[in-house]
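Human: Cast an eye over this sequence-structure pair and say how the chain folds.
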Amino acid sequence: RFYRFTEAGYDLESEFVRVGLALAVLPDDVVVTVVYEGTDAEAQGVEEGDVVSTIDGDWARLYDQDQLDALLHGEEGETVVFGISRRGADVEDVEVLIEDLLPVCSEWYER
């Protein structure tokens, strides 16, 4: 069971409404570190290690880690467009759905 945790201004459930991937700011790049199984990010072909050059048309390197994390959240059903390159290939725009990951995460804990 999941129980709602509430603290002034903090809503745990909204933490799960996001794109199904995580990013890290490295010295020279922004890189996909995790693609959550069963998410639209996985369905769109995003892979761990992909280099993200843009997010919704803005240069990803302009953001620090906290700002990047905030960009991965939004309203369920909206999308985020990532400019992604893999192993030095040309950048390709990949549109990823913002979804409620709580059901996906709860399946991990039931296994």
Q: What stands out?
A: Residues 1-12, 105-111 have pLDDT under 50 and may be disordered. The chain has three helices and ten strands. The beta strands are 6-7, 10-11, 17-18, 21-25, 30-35, 51-55, 58-59, 79-85, 92-97, 99-100.
